[in-house]
Design a protein that fits this description.
Helix 5 packs parallel to helix 6. With 257 residues, the chain is of the alpha+beta class. The protein has seven helices and 17 strands.
Length: 257
């Protein structure tokens, strides 16, 4: 059993969510070295979370999207995305949130994702996943029963990088954590992700795994989060969903040549 206080973490997330809400539709983005956007909300929220986690869990490491790197070789490491979906946040789109993931020896073991605009909180600990205190479970509908109303979460660059012949709908949410959480709750059949990093993935993978889901590469290999705990982006597209679902989706998704 992991000795963390989920209620305390949820209170931190709501506090940070209030900061984000005050800046929503008013924040101006700057460009980082990798050309991704950053706002004062990203920086302020990461600073608060780093301070709280370092004080509460001094033996743990921390890695954050906004340059935090602290003892990432520790047994337990927190991965923080202060605004997952910054581009959506800047342009006034509603699908963004605050993501925290805890990795144990490189494996996500606990996570939270809070969406301030809807006051929705997803969390997982000790192999149990919840959405606003309701238990979560992935959709295990077999491929032959998929229809046009089923949907697949896709990245915003899917039209440039991927060929997809999925029978249902595709939706780009603009937030990796949101995509994983919608799969975890059984709303989306699955998710395909590109260019994801550990702070994008850790919280959502913990929630998805506790809800019965898995992640694989498009080549069919198990995804190993420990390989990118240093902050590198995953080079190969990733698929997430129920075990049978990800294998079925592989037949419908190809990298553009």
């Amino acid at each position: 059993m992991i000795d963390i206080d989920i209620e305390e973490l949820c209170s931190w997330m709501r506090e940070c969510g209030n900061i984000a809400l005050r800046l929503f539709n008013r924040a101006r983005a700057q460009r980082k070295a990798d050309n991704s956007p950053v706002t004062e909300a990203d920086v302020a929220i990461e600073r608060i979370l780093v301070e709280r986690i370092a004080a509460r869990y001094p033996d743990h490491g921390i890695i954050g999207e906004e340059q935090t790197r602290f003892d990432i070789t520790k047994e337990y490491v927190w991965a923080l995305d202060p605004i997952d979906g910054t581009a959506s946040f800047v342009t006034g789109l509603p699908l963004w949130g605050i993501s925290i993931g805890l990795l144990h020896r490189g494996v996500p073991c606990a996570g939270l994702f809070y969406m301030p605009l809807t006051d929705d909180c997803y969390w997982a600990v000790d192999h149990h996943a919840f959405f606003n205190h309701q238990p979560l479970s992935v959709d295990t509908t077999p491929e032959q029963e998929w229809d046009s109303e089923d949907w697949l979460a896709i990245p915003s660059d899917a039209h440039r990088r991927l060929e997809i012949d999925f029978i249902g709908k595709t939706r780009s949410l603009g937030s990796v954590a949101a995509a994983l959480c919608y799969v975890a709750r059984g709303s989306a059949v699955g998710a395909v992700l590109t260019h994801a990093t550990i702070w994008d993935l850790a919280g959502g993978i913990a929630i998805l795994s506790a809800a019965g889901g898995i992640g694989i590469t498009l080549a069919g290999e198990p995804f190993n989060p420990a390989a990118v705990i240093d902050g590198r982006a995953v080079r190969e597209p990733l698929l997430f969903g129920a075990p049978g679902t990800v294998e079925a989706l592989r037949r419908h998704i190809r990298v553009r040549r």
